[in-house]
Specification:
Helices cover 83% and strands 0% of the residues. By secondary structure, it is mainly alpha-helical.
Length: 171
Amino acid sequence: MKCFMVLYLLLLSFSGRSQTADQVMAQMQQTVDYFQQEQYEKVIPLADKTANELKRMIGEDTVFYTGLVKMLAFSYFQTFRYEKAEATYIYLSGVIKKHCGEKAPGYIAALNDLANVYESMGRYDKAEPLMQQTAVLIRKYEGERTMNYAINLNNLAALYHTMGQYIKAEP
């Protein structure tokens, strides 16, 4: 709730109109509710609309905006709209890298999510370098003895197995 209060005050400071801020806050809460209920078909139009409003009002360099875009991308993925998920994750990773750098956990997660989209599409040639890149970034910024690194290596090994490259899948 504290997080939403900060957003509300931020929206008020930029919009100057409490009605607009109230509407965006309500849309954002509804989006989060639909997302938590896994109602992805309802998330998509609402997250898209709300993200565009937030971008217009406070810019793209806030956790609120990128959070909505991530929910939108994930919802596209869950509804098998892989091309939309791909484009959204590419955009999201660019925004996060631009504003937070490559060591931001959100950037690394967006790259990993994009790799998962490519894997689901059967585009292993695109998934493999992204999974390798996320492994390098996780090792560089979090270390080799982390759960994220282990999970990433496991996912990369599973991809190699799917591709029939069993030697690469070995530790």
